TrEMBL record:
Keyword set includes Membrane: yes
Record keywords: Cell outer membrane, Membrane
PROSITE patterns for the chain: OMPA_2, PROKAR_LIPOPROTEIN
Taxonomic superkingdom: Bacteria
GO cellular component annotations of the record: cell outer membrane
Keyword GTP-binding: no
Compartments it resides in: Cell outer membrane
Protein name (database record): Outer membrane protein OmpA-like peptidoglycan-associated protein
């Protein structure tokens, strides 16, 4: 019996590379003697790096937001009305934003190249304000959203003088932290991570508070 047990232990350890061998439990050493393989403490290191500026948490969140959520909604020509697709996208944005109460966002308004510069800048700003109003109606704190920047027709996705739906858009972006937010100033980054696990397990309808058939508040 003992011979079979020892052979099994030898087989397990020999199947591992030298770098992984310390992670295999040993029956000939006391409990807890397996040394750290280098990953323990990374949460603390991450927290420290964020608060001393070595790691740009805002940039990391901005990248994550653009990867996990569609940050863009499009509009009909000369319109600020949100269609069904736009509302679906904004509900996803609201769900994501509600998970991070310490983070601020900006909504940038764009237009196509038809019309004067002055009119298009005004139109772009109105589109951004429509998006902000919709997100606020879905539970996002108004102080965390900014719609003061309108790029008008200065940054088209498609360079054309005609009507182009892809240019008529708003883009929501992470821009920073809420001033004097306790989670940020007290260094409680672990609370943010823990909250993501808990909130991420909830159905989206609980986070947004509305069904997929919600209508615009404009």
């Amino acid at each position: 019996m003992w011979k079979h047990f020892a052979a099994l232990a030898l087989l397990l350890t020999s199947a591992c590379s030298d770098g992984d061998r310390d992670a295999v439990p040993s029956w000939w050493r006391e409990a807890g003697s397996v040394i750290d393989n280098g990953h323990f403490g990374e949460a603390t290191l991450n927290n420290t790096s964020i608060h001393n500026g070595d790691k740009q948490y805002v940039l990391a969140l901005a990248n994550r937001f653009s990867e996990e959520v569609n940050s863009t909604v499009n509009f009909a020509f000369d319109s600020t009305q949100l269609d069904h697709a736009a509302r679906m996208t904004l509900q996803q944005q609201a769900s994501w934003i509600l998970q991070f109460p310490e983070v601020r966002f900006k909504v940038y308004g764009h237009t196509d190249l038809v019309g004067s510069d002055a009119y298009n800048r005004s139109l772009g700003l109105r589109r951004a304000k429509t998006v902000v109003s919709y997100l606020v109606a879905r539970g996002v704190n108004r102080d965390r959203l900014e719609a003061v920047v309108s790029l008008g027709k200065e940054q088209p996705l498609v360079v054309t003088q005609g009507r182009e739906r892809r240019n008529r858009r708003t883009v929501t972006e992470v821009t920073g932290f809420v001033d004097r937010h306790p989670t940020v100033l007290d260094g409680k980054y672990a609370e943010v991570v823990y909250r993501q696990y808990v909130t991420g397990a909830k159905p989206q309808t609980e986070l947004v508070g509305l069904s997929a058939t919600g209508t615009s508040s404009e």
